[in-house]
Amino acid sequence: MSSDYEYSDDDVDYYDDEEMIDGTQDDYTGDSDDDNMMDFGGDEDIKVPQKGKRKSYEVDFESLSQSAVEKLMAEEVEYICSVCGVDESVASLLLRHNKWNKERLVEKYMDNPTTVLVAAGVTVPEPSASPTQRSAPIPSTPSSRRSTRSASSRLLNTLSGVGVVGGPKPTKSPITSPTLPHHTPRSFKPKPPSSSDPFVCPICFDDTPSLRTLSLDCEHTFCSNCWTAYLVSKIRDEGEHAVRCMAEGCALVCSDPFIRTVIGPGSPAESPAQEEENKKAWSHFQELLVRHYVGCTKRLKFCPYPGCTNTVSCPAAADKSSLVTVVPTVSCGARGIGDQITNAASSGGGASGAGSSGWGLAGKEHKFCFGCNVEADHRPVVCPVARMWLKKCRDDSETANWIKSNTKECSNCQSTIEKNGGCNHMTCKKCKHEFCWVCMGPWSEHGTAWYSCNRYDEKAGVDARDAQSRSRASLERYLHYYNRWANHEQSAKLSIDLYAKTEKKMEDMQITSSLTWIEVQFMKKAVEEAERCRMTLKWTYAMAYYLAKGNEKDLFEDNQRDLERAVEDLSELLEGPIEPESIPTLRQKVTDKTVYVQKRNEIVLEDTAKGFLDGRWGWNVVVEGFDDPEGVEY
Amino acid sequence: MDARLRRVNKEIADCKNDKTSNIRIDLVGDSPFHLKGSFPGPEGTPYEGGNFDVDIVIPDSYPFQPVKMKFITKVYHPNVSSASGAICLDILKDAWSPVLTLKSTMISLQSLLCSPEPNDPQDAEVAKHYMTSKSSFEDTARYWTEIYAGGPGSKSGRVASSGTRDDIAIAGLDPQHVARFEGLGFARGQVIDVLRRLNYRGQNASKISEDRVVEELLKP
User: TM spans, by residue (chain B) (predicted)?
Assistant: First the structure.
């Protein structure tokens, strides 16, 4: 015991409980030693993925900091630079426009570099009819928006003189050759105002002779103050990373070096406040780029905890179809919320499932599900089922009613969207998916057949009413599962309160009796284990609710029952009165029970996870990603 | 925001000086950031002869964010809400460019009246009407121009003779159709409401059974 005393010095850290259990129960699981090696070998920044034997209910993942992601992006950019022979800023624009799909980009680029460059807004399209006319409508690029309102811009050109006051001279050297793939850096250097006619910024009408002006390759010249205000507005208010030229209809996109000259470090600012604004916008721009990259890369996901900038890479769950076989519970390795985030390597939390310590939000590990955002850890249930269950549970709440009546999910990326005005032609802010608000079908299929939406809506109304009556009939059954589900959640919360009380008692006991600190720690481990098992139990009820009747379900419920019984026994022991004389017996009992409960929990998790891998589970409803059930019973 | 004020003042002045475009922009109160624009309905359209008022609000980040516009005058047009005057026009949303001005935007609105875009509607019922029967749509649009925008018909025509506004014409329906269901004992307002919603017009009327209409009429 003397060596154990060493641990009592650092009393709240994650390592103690691990060590304690290992020291006292070496036999509880075969690979506990491996776990420990891993725990202490953990890097400061990057969480080492599980080495060696991995349990079937765990996934491999890796945590990345923002700079690590930026490094990944730089690699991709470099790859495109070398393959396509373009400079970095162009490669970055190309990749962003092609959603970081470099294979497809290279293929398209090799096929027709000009089209790709024009589509990404790198070069202006071939001069159309009259290249000298400044505001000639620029032909829409293949991927670009519909040209429904071209009539208006045509009219504009004939009627309006405003807005082009003092624009760039038509006689100026026109447009740089768009066919040159490897072109020189952009001509966004300050241009001296033309001597013959003083320059007037077409936006702010400033005509100060010394006005600093800038333009992209398209030669649409504006004063630098307008550029600054425009970029800051686009980046901060709209979160746009591909900012187009300010001229109407011009599809050219501002390159990173251009944005850097305007708002980046060292850019000219009129006042300290402006400088601060620019600084914020510039760092927000960097963040947007990382976000876009992570958003486009399926094996990457942001840590969803507030204030956390880490990213988790989990190739195993990159494919949506894999979510029917694995539950990708991952952790970015950091703990805490907001300013209190600590990025220290966690002691084998997350993947190993053991050693989550620290109560409350402050020390909470950044554990989340890679596959969905419904709940951090919903093992053993796979994402589609967990999502279905939570949706069902939430359907009664007022918030859900509001969300249901006021928002819809983008049919492409599932972002929740509130329509606050405008027509039914929606464009998802996040993924740019265009769809019809009424029928949620893609807008491209609409066109002239817009009216099918009307009929569809009426039919949907009938379906909704039918569904309602059916759900009422099965309410009884649902409540059975729901009550147990909610009960376990509640119990898990209560056990934390119980622990706080017990701990106090334990401390007193150290003083009044001859027990050492380490000898009364069994309680903490037991409460943690009980909480973890209750989480598993909770989700097994969601699972059982949807499982199709049959032998598999019977076996599942047997396992569930065994675990539940064991957990209840353990809870009872923990709640019993604690007397100094009975401590050694209680300790023995609790420790034994904890080991047993842990084993039962392993069995449930293992068996369920294997069942998913083998495709053993059948459902009584249609579950996303699974084959349709043969006979729906409920 | 000094630059914004300078720009808006110049735009207002430009409009005042320009006599050819027929676009008017006036202050609503003391603030130059809440304006009222008006323009004549384009020639050769059902809106000809009318005068259309537009509510204009200049946002704080103008001209880097689009100006907010909606019709004050009621307009019967697929891309304008017949209830609120809200406008579906790309340059008022994501196709906005800082070089666009109040005047050029107003001209775009004018041209929107020339070329409706029923496949991208703001007002679905009006769009349906447009697609079903363009001539009937134009009659209704013309009637709206008369009664709401002071169109030419207001001096002679229907309004003067009857003294009241014709609800059936406002809804763009056939008086015979309305009379038929009114004859079944339903209130006129309700009949107009249902027939408009069902787009009971032109060829479409023959596709909708009487039972279907009655069913709708009986709904609470």
Answer: none
Does the distance separating the beta carbons of B119 and A203 come in below 8 Å?
no
* Residue in chain B lying closest to A148 (CA): B117
Residues in chain B within 8 Å Cβ distance of A156? 104, 107-108, 111
Q: How far, in whole angstroms, is CA A337 from its chain's centroid?
A: 17
CB-based burial, A107-123: b 16+ in 10 Å, e otherwise = ebbeeebbebbbbbbbb
Question: Is the CB of A255 inside 8 Å of chain B's CB atoms?
Answer: no
How does pLDDT run across A365-421, given as a tens digit for each residue?
788 888 887 777 888 888 888 888 888 787 655 555 566 566 777 777 777 788 776
DSSP E strand stretches across B33-179 = 34-40, 51-57, 68-71
Determine the Cα–Cα distance for residues A462 and A467; give it in Å rounded to an integer.
9
How far, in Å, CA of A351 to CA of A58, rounded? 6
For residues A29-45, b (16+ Cβ closer than 10 Å) or e, as one string? beebebbbebbeebeeb
Cβ within 8 Å, pair A159-B97? no
B58, B34 Cβ separation under 8 angstroms: yes
Partner-chain residue, chosen from B110, B111, B121, that has the shortest CB–CB distance to A423: B121
pTM: 0.67
DSSP, residue by residue, A234-282 = IIIIS--SSPBPSSTT---B--HHHHHHHHSTT---SSHHHHHHHHHHH
Band (A171; pLDDT cuts 50, 70, 90): very low
Residue A342 pairs with which residues in a beta bridge? A335
Q: In this structure, what token pair is assigned to residue A106?
A: 């290279």
The pair of three-digit structure tokens given for residue A302, joined into one six-digit string: 């942001």
Q: Which has the closest alpha carbon to A88: A218, A257, A260, A293?
A: A257
Which listed residue (B12, B72, B88, B217) is catalytic? B88
Cβ distance A205 to B10 less than 8 Å, yes or no, reads yes
- Record: contact B7-A205, CB cut-off 8 A: yes
Residue pLDDT, tens place only, A420-470? 766 777 788 888 888 777 777 777 766 555 545 554 444 544 554 455 455
> Which residues in chain B are contacts of A449 at CB distance < 8 A?
none
Q: Taking Cα atoms as reference points, which of A162, A136, A131 lies closest to residue A150?
A: A136
Give the DSSP H/E element, type plus range, for residue A106: helix A102-111
Catalytic residue list contains A423: yes
d(CA A555, CA A536): 16
pLDDT digits (tens, 9 = 90+) for A331-353: 888 877 666 666 643 333 333 33
CB A93 within 8 A of CB A388: no
Instruction: Inspect the interface and report whether the beta carbons of B95 and A149 lie closer than 8 Å.
Output: yes
Q: Is B207 on the interface with A (CB under 8 A)?
A: no
**A500 residue type, one letter:** A
Residue of chain B whose alpha carbon sits nearest to that of A429: B94
- Mutate one of A156, A432, A438 to test the B interface: name it (highest B CB count within 10 A): A156
Count of Cβ atoms closer than 10 Å to residue A373 Cβ: 13
Q: Hey, what are A31's tokens? A: 């690979």
- Residue pair B8/B37 in contact by the 8 Å Cβ criterion: no
Residue A593 and residue A530: Cα distance in Å, rounded?
10
- Model confidence at A159: pLDDT above 90: no
